[in-house]
């Protein structure tokens, strides 16, 4: 796993995203199961088998856009809003999805959810930076000069690191979006999300 957990562990330092990051790590086998209190943030247990692209796409014509919107924006849903924005709502860390329905088909959208590494949009690879004092940051590079590095983090904030304080910098050949959503989002969930996203079009 090239992501290795470094990027997601970096998110655990943010109080707003710590429980979401812990949930992802647990579901991908990187952490032992959390206690009952920690699980209260999201009542979606792992599925018996991982959702496949064909299963999700087959259900798109029956998708519920209203439910898809709820999954996108609620913390107990898919949590897409932590990294994506639609019409100004959410965090524009990853690609803005306000017009995704105008530039993508349903299969591509569903695949992007289930396998973010299938197609990585230029400029959205994950960077992991370790500072000389041992702190680790993960995000998308927004500015890179001779003096500083500016990273957009998954909570919508940016962190500015002085180059003189950087001990290690790694570009991962993976999308900044973590994989593993098919382990807890059902085919119907993916279909609902996809059907709503396909309604996001430019006029």
What's the total helix number? 8
Q: Could you report the average pLDDT, rounded to the nearest whole number? A: 79
End-to-end span in angstroms? Answer: 40 Å
Tell me the β content. Answer: 15-25%
Considering DSSP H and I runs of 4 or more, what fraction of the residues is helical?
A: 25-40%
Query: How many β-strand stretches?
Result: 7
Q: What structural class do helix, strand and pairing data support?
A: alpha+beta
Low-confidence stretches: 26-42
Strand order in space, largest sheet: 6-5-4-3-7
Largest sheet geometry = 5 strands, antiparallel
As an assembly, this protein is: single chain
What is the topological layout?
Blueprint: H1 6-11, H2 18-27, H3 36-39, H4 53-59, H5 65-73, E1 85-86, E2 89-90, H6 100-103, H7 106-114, E3 125-131, E4 136-144, E5 148-152, E6 158-162, E7 166-175, H8 187-197
Antiparallel strand pairs: 1-2, 3-4, 3-7, 4-5, 5-6
Give a quick set of tags describing it.
203 residues, alpha+beta, five-stranded antiparallel beta sheet, two-stranded antiparallel sheet, 8 helices, 7 strands, 30% helix, elongated
Written description of the protein model:
The chain is α+β, with helices and mostly antiparallel strands and 203 residues long. 30% of the residues lie in helices and 20% in strands. The protein has helices at 6-11, 18-27, 36-39, 53-59, 65-73, 100-103, 106-114, 187-197; strands at residues 85-86, 89-90, 125-131, 136-144, 148-152, 158-162, 166-175. The strands form two sheets. The protein has a five-stranded antiparallel β-sheet. Strands 1-2 form a two-stranded antiparallel ribbon. A hairpin with a 4-residue loop joins β3 (125-131) and β4. The longest helix is centred in the C-terminal third of the chain and has 11 residues, at 187-197.
